[in-house]
Amino acid sequence: MPLPCPAIYHSDEMKPYREWMTPMHLEVLGSLGGSFESDNIIDYYMDPVEVGYGQFIDFSKDFIGREALAHKVKNPRRKKVTLVWNEEDVLEVMHHSLYTNGSASKFMNLPLAVYSTFQYDEVLKDGKAAGISQYVGFSSNAQAMFVTVAREHRVQ
To answer: At residue 41, what are phi and psi to the nearest 5 degrees?
Structure first.
């Protein structure tokens, strides 16, 4: 999750920061895109545990939010996982997004398929929400296209 949506847009506590920012700040000019849709901006936020940083949190120190993060480590909402795209699916998406007029597919650039600042695509399993895809890229070492997903913890 290299660039999750900043958790600054909903609270009164962050209002002074939002008012301080200029149009050149990433939080102002960044775009939010993808197939994941919610009317609640909080659904786009991710905590350090969800983005895979839980193992780096030093709970032996005192810090603001320590208790909340300790709870999230024990009860995560989402878990970061990496999926490998099927080669035929990658080629099909690239073909349709590049060569088909009126294609509903997003374009897939290489090595990174970046189409917005904060990417949020819905991942489905058996037609039900299973997570959020946020980063798609090609690895020349692995010769494969990978996607980083925040998998809903309740989905296996």
So the answer is: -60, -25
Tokens 């798609």: give the residue: 136
Using a 10 angstrom Cβ sphere, with 0-12 exposed, 13-18 middle and 19 or more buried, the burial of residue 142 is exposed
- The answer to whether the beta carbons of residues 122 and 35 sit under 8 Å apart is yes
Is 100 in a helix, a strand, or coil?
Answer: coil
Least confident range of 47-56, 104-113, 124-133: 104-113
Is pLDDT of 13 > 90?
A: yes
46-67: buried (b, 16+ CB within 10 Å) or exposed (e) per residue? bbbbbbbebeebeeeeeeeeee
pLDDT digits (tens, 9 = 90+) for 60-87: 999 999 999 999 999 988 888 888 999 9
Q: What is the DSSP letter of 84?
A: E
| Structure-token pair, residue 2 | 């290299």
For residue 93, what is the enclosing H or E element? Answer: helix 87-99
**Pairing assessment for the beta strands 121-125 and 32-33 based on DSSP bridges:** unpaired
